[in-house]
Amino acid sequence: MSTDQDFMDIRYTGEKGPLFNLAFNTGLLTVVTLGIYRFWQKTRIRKYIWSSVNAGGDTFEYTGTGIEKFLGFLIAVVFLAIYVGIIQMVLFYAGLNVMVDPETASPQQVIAQMAAIYITFFAVLPFILYATYRARRYKMARSRWRGIRFGMEKGAWGFVWRAMGYGFLAVITLGILTPLQTFKLEKYQTDRSFYGSARFTQNGKWTDLYGAMTHLLIGIGILVVSFLLIGGGVASENMALAGLGGFAAFVGYIWALIGGIHYGVQSFAYLTANKMLGDDIRFTAAPRTGFVIKTYILGGLLVSLLASVAFGIVGAIAAAFIPLLENGVGMVAFGIVMAVGYVVALVLTQALSLILITQPVLAHYIEKLEIVNAEGLNRIAQREAETGVDAEGFADALDIGGAI
Q1: pTM (2 decimals)?
Q2: Domain count, the chain
């Protein structure tokens, strides 16, 4: 920490070896328990990552437990099963059915199936957004630093309606109003967050995010032009024009993909730099898009290579049992080797992805953060414990709780 300007650096001290062992071992336990242990797996991984974040000589602490996550999940599953069941009954009596065989169904049945799928999705969408807010609130409530709790006010349904409204505006404008959606939703959540007795506030302007969105908009523009070229080429039977449109579509997709990553990195930097804690505590953030993209590419290639080797070894071992398939014992042995081997390879791939992609990117974001006017932290008092936090039940039930 440099005392002249009172900047507090944040460091990440996590290592690949311990995190890999933790992820691999808990992954195997998750498989053995048919997925039940995943709540304890996520809790243990979070505890390791939180404790690896050091700011001013003090590490963070995660106080969540696996049992509260598991119980929250069970409650959410029961509710969602009843809710989705009622939706399906209503759709069935309305003549809409999700279960239709495309090979034997009439065009009208296929259209009805698509309508049922979209109706079901939009009926569940509010709970997906609800789970997003509650998951963030839970993690805030279960995080401590210097012995002081973080917290977040209730407001999940307010977040739901805003997310749906701003999301609709972003879609109908072909992404042009995405900065409005990003800023408003982050402001809604930030302004309801606390560290001890001090409240976070999100300052800045949503229009300032357009600088981070330049490449994404270029990619979207290229995609729109490519569709016009393809459509024009097909209509005029000009294959050269259609081919040019296909090439433009490929370029536009890659450009939009990289632009999306760039927007995510730089919008995070802008929003973080415009956050305030209390009256005078601020932050700086300078993550690099190039580092994130490089990590995704190189880490992804390395994970793919190692996973291929692991699956290849499993296949080679299983191949040794092929001559024994003529008898029952050989078939059983072959099945066991295949099942166990591929499960272990999948768990290995998950653990490798965590240490080669997730952890380096996370560490980069953390180490590019600084706390400004850190002496103000000494004036912050403890906050009362949060009540009514559902341990991410809906997030896990809707399969959006997989993120660390």
Answers
A1: 0.85
A2: 1
